[in-house]
Amino acid sequence: MIDYHFDWSVIARNADKLTDALLLGLGLAVVSLLIGSVIGLLAAYARVSGKAWLSAPVWAYVEFIRCTPLLLLIFFLYFGLPEFDVTFLDKTQSFVLSLSLYAGAYMCEVFRAGLASIPKQYVEAAKAIGLRPWQRQAYVILPVMFRITLPSIGNNLISLFKDTSLAAAIAVPELTFTARQINANTFRVMEVWLTASALYLASAYLIAMMLRLLERRYASIR
Amino acid sequence: MDFSMAPGTFLFEAWQARASLLQGLGVTMLSSALSIVIATVCGLAMGVALAYGWWWLRLVARLYVDLMRGIPLLVLILFTYYGLALFGINVPAFWAGVIALGAFATAHVAENFRGAVQSVPAGQMEAAKAIGLTFGKRLSYVILPQAVRRMLPPWVNTALEIVKGTTLLSIIGVVELLLSAQQAMARNYMIIDFYLLTTALYVAINFTLAQLGASLERRFSYLRY
After folding, report:
1. Cα nearest neighbour of A25 on chain B
2. Residues on B contacting A at a C-beta cutoff of 8 Å
């Protein structure tokens, strides 16, 4: 280490590549969060429906995903789906599918807790003014639930963003994969990994700060 | 799936690969156990620093915790694996991975410890001071027995995350359960069967841990501070 001379020109030369990689990672996280939220919302409604044939499979799905390593899920879908003649997914789409399924289980728990924490009076008031069941959901329950769960959704976005690093394992050119590639080509170990770490950290903090602003604007109802 | 033991069937191939699969399972368990021990010991020390340290110690610990929580585990593992060699420390991939996993989980244990300790009402600490206990006694006789109930459920969750995190060691070439299964698949192309087997093993380990965490949570659900 005493003999190590930093040479940051490697980073400067690959700046555009690293930027593209970072943006790809952010995009993967956002898309997976959106698909995962849809899955999670449907699953959460199934979970609170009170019907065993709906809530039992969802319980199994959530527990299964929570007990399975994400990397295994990624490999399973990437290498396993073609065995079932599902060959139209490229590696990026396959990764998004894995991360969405993964996010879906966590979002299901978030939304379930959100639905459970909606004050009874809100539903009663909505009934009292004569809203139909779907109107109660659309105008009262869902908006309140999203405000209550906003911090948890934000935390999930950050951890999904960090999880996009696993896409490197199936050669999706996101930040970790690109950093590894530059590392292999130039062997500027410290520069490359310090930069990658700093980019992940800075992005995570930026997301966290934006979420805090969002939370302040749509302050949760107490 | 054909459940006979004839050559070319899944059970036959799994039996052929039993030694390497069991060894992989052993590596997974050993690396998890070592990381959990490292994370618990270092995490408790760092948690004390976070909760009761001098301001500069708190700052350093806080910086460490936030750094570790903002960087993906895979980047930490790769950084450790490639970076340690620069310091003239030539550790095998296994130890690089265990160090990275341990360092990562240390931050989680520390933050969890701080939260648990600070959730004990301040009056407890004040009362312990008032009867003249030293800092060590205040911690070990008054605060910790109350905080440990808060700490156990999330500690089990951290352990579960570590077990799942050991799969990332396959990326730096540690032949743990996932990689040993992939090596078996490379021989016999039974991709679905072997991934299902691996998944079943992970789910078995992690579901047990998760149930343990849930039962601890129920056990201590009477806690209301």
Report:
1. B72
2. 67, 70-76, 78-79, 82-83, 85-88, 160, 163-168, 170-171, 178, 182, 185, 191-192, 195, 198-199, 202-203, 206-207, 210
